[in-house]
Amino acid sequence: MKEAQKTAERMQSLEEELSQQTLEASSGGGMVKATVTGAGQIVGLAIDPKVVDPDDVEMLQDLILSAIREALEQASKVREEKIQGITGGLDLPKIPGLPF
Questions:
Q1: Torsion-angle region of residue 21: left (phi > 0), alpha (psi -120 to 50) or beta?
Q2: What is the CATH code of the structural domain delimited by 15-84?
Q3: Residue 49 carries which DSSP code?
Q4: pLDDT tens, position by position, 53-83
């Protein structure tokens, strides 16, 4: 039980650490950049004015979605790696209220 409590405390600490870490991904050769936290929160979006074409809004939308998806995927990978480090690779069941 003490080990489970320590793991829960480490997971809470990890969630705080992840919320402070930022990851960035881009699309369109860097024309659109998305920034997310390790916890998966979108905190920034930069769009180069050169890519804004009123006649091709769909392309801009696709670039934005692509950058956000890539950034979120990076955040997910970082989170999973850090969780594996804490749990030692154990496949823990989802327990309501615990951050892992």
A1: beta
A2: 3.30.1310.10
A3: G
A4: 999 999 999 999 999 999 999 999 998 888 8
